[in-house]
Each structure stands twice: as C-alpha cells, then as structure tokens.
Amino acid sequence: MLKRISALILAGVTALTMAGCSGGGDGDSSASGGSAGGGDDKIVMGFSQVGAESGWRTANTKSVQESAKEAGIDLKFSDAQQKQENQIKAIRSYIQQKVDVIAFSPVVESGWDTVLKEAQNAKIPVILTDRAVDSKDTSLYKTFLGSDFVEEGKKAGQWLVDEYKDSKDTVNIVELQGTTGSAPANDRKAGFSEIISADPKFKVIASQSGDFTRAKGKEVMEAFLKSNPKIDVLYAHNDDMGLGAIEAIEGAGKVPGKDIKIITVDAVHDGMQALADGKINYIVECSPLLGPQLMDLAKKVVKGEQVPPRVVTEETTFTQEQAKEALPNRKY
Ligand code: AHR
C-alpha cells in the first residue's frame, strides 16, 4: 500500500515539474521553456516565411536563419510558397508545438485575425516581420519590424518628378505591382501615386501584378509592350520583376534605361548590377537584413519586456553612380 502511495506521489510531482518546464509559449515565463526544442534552455521560434520568390526573400531567409543561430535561438522554419493557407497551417502547427514565439512575414495583409487570436489564446507572442497585417486589433501581435513601404513608393515617385522637372511632355508610365493584396504592393503603389499625381503630365497607362517574380515580371512587361506603343517609364515594385522586364524590353528591340527608364525597389545584388550597368535608372533600397533585430525583439517579448509597437528599418536610395561605388561591399 505504502509503495502504491509513494508511486502516486512521484507521478504527481513529475507531472507538475513537466508542466512547469513546458512553458507552453507563455510570453511571461517561457524564456527558459523551449518545450518544442527538446528540453534545453533555448528559446524556440516558429517562423513562417512567405516563399522564395525573389533575391530579397532569399537574403531575408539567410539573415533570419544565421541570426537565430548566432542568438542561440532554436528556429523552426517553414516556407509557405506564397500561399496564405500554408502560413496559417504553419502558425497552427507552431501553436500546437507550444513554441515560445511566432514570427511571420504575411503574404497578404487581410485574413489573419482568427489564427492570431488562436496564438493569443495560447499565450504565444507574435512578431510581424517585414510585412504588416490589416487587423484592427493590434493586441494580436507584439510588434511589427520592417520597412516603410509607403515611403519607398514616395522616394520612387520623387525621383521621377525630379528627372522630368524640365519637361512639359506627357510621361507614360507602366507599373509592375508586387503580390496582389500584399502590404508592399499596396503601399508602394500608394506612395508613388501620391507623389506623381501632383503633376498631370505623369500618366500610369498600365498597372498589373507580376507577383514579385522575375518570370512574371517578364511576362507582364511583354504584354505591356505589345499593347502600349509609347512607354517612357517602368516602375517595378521589386528588382526581380524589373530584371524580368529588362529581358522583355531587350526582346522587343528597345534599350532598358534609355528608351524606357526603370525604377525598382530592393537593391539586391542583381538589381544593383543592372543599375551600375545602366539598365536600371534608380533603386529604392528595402533591406532584407532583419534577422538580428528580430532575434533581439524575440528575446524581449519572450521575457515579457515592453517593445516598441513598430520598428522601422533604415534605408537609402541608389543612382547608377552610387551603385558602382556600393556594389563591391554589398552583402546581398
Ligand atoms: O516584402 C518585401 C518584398 O517582398 C520585397 O521587396 C520583394 O522583393 C519581396 O518578394
């Protein structure tokens, strides 16, 4: 009898100890939890990446993975292949695994409230990385780390205004938008439009999504060229679409950077090379190196410390001359 009572007490103590250790992703107490990480003291982060659609994304994934390693954070990484349903599945799986913190770069802005509520109910803090969501309830995430995409669009528009300041002629613009419904596509369009709409000589004669990929950028630009005999400027929401469009422009017997001026966003290596080669005229930088800041924020939110609700990435712009100077030291 005594033996049975001792066994029951032991089982009870073991269960309580395990419950205490699991942390369950509780933002207040799980700094040494790591229930999904196999029992050591590491913070466990579940990260849902958009995909591998662009040079920017590849550099961003590398930055997140390397920084997690350096920060001693156990990273569970999944690639959603640009599908929201895959991101929702990944987030639900991280909730089930009781990770300490979830970070993700939302492929589109809308439709996240339900899954974010599930994470909140499970007391797992969420960090938005790179892209925003349009949820009214901002308590569903701890912070949003990333660029100011509206500002990027404004910088692109301002270059155009300055470039054509002495001309009275109509400037026909075609626009390659990023993924439909994504924050960078919405905001880069809005910022650009705000600046150029002050002068009626700027006319956006065609605007379509190229899904942030080189292949789609080429395909859509080919269609633009067929249906629009006079295109003066291409504004592409990222380098990759701009690079695809350059192939289409050359295929149509025109000279990119001269016959058609090109503005892009990102400043990844291939884009910067095309800028230095004179095929692109201006690039607005969008930095993918978010990893180190993300890991710092993750450590803080897991400890229950206060973090700013918005952390904006510092960025610049590049002309052709500046690209030539910057290229040898460019990290991505
Ligand atoms: O969200 C950032 C954007 O996503 C980058 O500008 C683009 O290249 C990427 O695919």
UniProtKB/TrEMBL annotation:
InterPro entries hit by this protein: Peripla_BP_I, SBP_2_dom
Annotated signal peptide: 1-19
PROSITE patterns: PROKAR_LIPOPROTEIN (PS51257)
Chief place where the protein resides: other
Entry coiled-coil feature ranges: none
Subcellular location per the Swiss-Prot or TrEMBL entry: Cell envelope
Domain of life from the UniProt record: Bacteria
Keywords: Signal
SUPFAM superfamilies: Periplasmic binding protein-like I
Residue ranges occupied by any Periplasmic binding protein domain in the UniProt entry: 47-306
Keyword Signal included in the entry's annotation: yes
Pfam hit, one: Peripla_BP_4
Entry similarity comment: Belongs to the bacterial solute-binding protein 2 family.
Protein name, entry field: LacI family transcriptional regulator
UniProt organism field: Microbispora amethystogenes
